[in-house]
Amino acid sequence: MAIQMGAIIGLSAWGGNKLDTVYQNKQPVYTIVLCLLGIGAALYIVLKDFIKPKKE
Predict the structure, then answer these.
(1) Which of 16, 20, 25, 39 could form a disulfide with 34 if both were Cys (CB 3.0 to 4.6 A apart)?
(2) Buried b (16+ CB within 10 A) or exposed e, 33-50
(3) How does residue 2 score in pLDDT terms, banded at 50, 70 and 90?
(4) Cβ contacts of residue 29 below 8 Å, gap of 6+?
(5) Alpha-carbon span 17 to 14, nearest angstrom
(6) CA separation, residue 40 to residues 1, 7, 44 (Å)
(7) Is residue 27 very low, low, confident or very high in pLDDT (cuts 50, 70, 90)?
(8) If you average pLDDT over every residue of the chain, what do you get?
(9) Phi/psi of residue 27, nearest 5 degrees
(10) Distance (Å, rounded) from C-alpha 33 to C-alpha 26?
């Protein structure tokens, strides 16, 4: 689960960095926005797995 979270956040940060490089932004806007979205997505996936009802 930790590897999955790291992969999601890492890929979103990498993508944001690439977008900032392509659009030559002075401030890392895309990196910040995509990192926050990646953190949100990772938390959603982890919490969804924890809250899932257990089958007996």
Answers:
(1) 16
(2) ebbeebeeebeeeeeeee
(3) confident
(4) 20
(5) 5
(6) 15, 13, 6
(7) very high
(8) 91
(9) -105, 145
(10) 15
| Nearest in space to 17 (alpha carbons), one of 38, 1, 3, 2 | 38
Enter the tokens of residue 14: 């990498």
Q: Are 28 and 20 in contact (CB under 8 A)?
A: yes
Indicate left, alpha or beta for 46 from its phi (over 0: left) and psi (-120 to 50: alpha).
alpha
| Nearest-5° Cα angle at 40, 1 to 19 | 105
Q: For residues 41 and 34, give the distance between their C-alpha atoms in angstroms, rounded to a whole number.
A: 10
When pLDDT is averaged across residues 27-55 and rounded to a whole number, the result is: 90
